[in-house]
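Morning run. Coffee first, then this:
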Amino acid sequence: MFFDRLPAVEAAEVPSDGFLLDVREPEEWAAGHAEQAVHVPMGEVVARIGELPRDRRVHVVCRSGGRSAQVAQYLIAQGYDAVNVDGGMHAWQAANRPMVAADGSPEAFVL
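And here it is:
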C-alpha cells in the first residue's frame, strides 16, 4: 500500500520527547544517532513491531528519508500514527539536533 501523501515532518519539528525510530543499519547507528532514538533496523521492523508504541506518534528516520518512508508507510498500514522525518539524519544533523556516537560521546556524524 502506497500513500499519495506520506505524513512527514522536518527534523527540527520532532519533539525532544517524541518517539524517534531509527531504522538504519548498525554501522550507521554506531557512527551517530539521536540520543533519544530507538534503534530497530529496517529489516527487523516486522519482527519487532511489538516494541513500538501504539499510543503515541512514531517519528521514523533513516539516513536520507527513503527507508524511513517505506517503514512509515508500513506502520501506517498497521494502524500506527507514524510520520517520516524528511531528509533523515542528514537533515537532523543540518538542523543541529543533538547526536551521540555508539559510545555515548558527542563526536557523532552521519554515515
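The CA atoms of residues 11 and 36 lie 13 Å apart. Good start to the day.
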